[in-house]
Amino acid sequence: MPNDNGFRRAKEGKRFWIYVKMNTLFRGWGQLRTPPGMPKKDERIRISARAASSHAGLRLDQLAAVLFSDYSRARLQKWIRSGELTVDGQVAGLTHRIVGNETLRLDAVALHQDIVLPQRIAIDILYSDQDIIVVNKPAGLVVHPAAGNPDGTLQNALLNFDESLAALPRSGIVHRLDKDTSGVMVVARSLRAHHSLVDQIQSRKVSRVYRAVATGNIVAGGTVEASVGRHPKDRKRMAVVRSGKHAVSHYRVLKRYNGATYLEVALETGRTHQIRVHMAHIGHPLAGDPVYGRSPKTRRGVPAELVEAIRSFPRQALHAHKLKLIHPGSQMEVKYQAPLPDDLDRLLAMLEPFEQ
């Protein structure tokens, strides 16, 4: 049986082994320390938002989900119950009815499960200053950790770029793109920028314009105004449903091909999968869309080469091309643009011989 000194040495040896393993894990960030982007135990989330008169009649948890959309409904409900989310400084129940113009304040402790670690993932920074970061997200990159994607996300990459983003909700991410949608995104880099951008998005002051390739021949531009919500039978999909949220997409034709159409689509609202659902709804799903599209078939008059080009495209042919907003610092209108990615350029080049 080891004596006390031997037991102590064994414990010290175990500590040293743990230190070596942890130091190896965080070698990319330098000396062993709390990894950049990891909130301290006493770090708090402090944000507030004001209800509009149009919110009158909503339950508190419903409004919280609208104003603090970075957080899940379940988490917001927990904060309401604990008194960390208040109405005009007063604790209220989940079913408290909103009158309008109340101030909702969230003052909550960042829990361990909220931690997202920085990772060295290359990202294309189009612009950055003390208030915002504008990135060109590549196709295939998930925006933030979720079920099935615990890391390797844009949020992990942003924390590696600027560890101070850990102090902001979702590390400053205020809107999302689907995993396989490429293009321009804006990220808040300060609390005032976060408040400003969330407000602009909710009040539809942010302009987002996409480029897309749709299947079929679209004769002219138009508008799709159809509510989007969860599919009644498949909860992983969205659909045009009467009970969904109001959604409006404006599209115009850039080029027509014999069996496909190159479009520019402007969003008036920003619902999940909105463009993909709306284009499928009018009978022109996006090329390569694995969820809302359908495998193109050779039809009379449609070249087989065009059908094969669309069939082989590995993702939905959708790119967030332009972004216009009011800069949170200067209060001036600014515009940012992400060039078309190589895969979409190649697809258009393959379709070029079939232009009408």
Question: Which key features would you list for this structure?
Answer:
3-stranded antiparallel sheet; Structural Genomics Hypothetical 15.5 Kd Protein In mrcA-pckA Intergenic Region, Chain A; Pseudouridine synthase; disordered N terminus; alpha+beta; 4 domains; 356 residues; 8 helices; single chain; 9-stranded mixed sheet; 14 strands
Short summary:
With 356 residues, the protein is an alpha+beta fold. It has helices at residues 4-25, 60-67, 73-82, 154-161, 191-202, 274-281, 304-311, 342-351; strands at residues 44-50, 85-87, 103-109, 124-128, 132-137, 182-188, 207-215, 222-225, 228-230, 238-240, 248-257, 260-267, 318-326, 333-337. Strands 4, 5, 6, 7, 8, 11, 12, 13 and 14 form a nine-stranded mixed beta sheet that branches. It has a three-stranded antiparallel beta sheet with strand order 1-3-2. It has a two-stranded antiparallel ribbon with strand order 9-10.
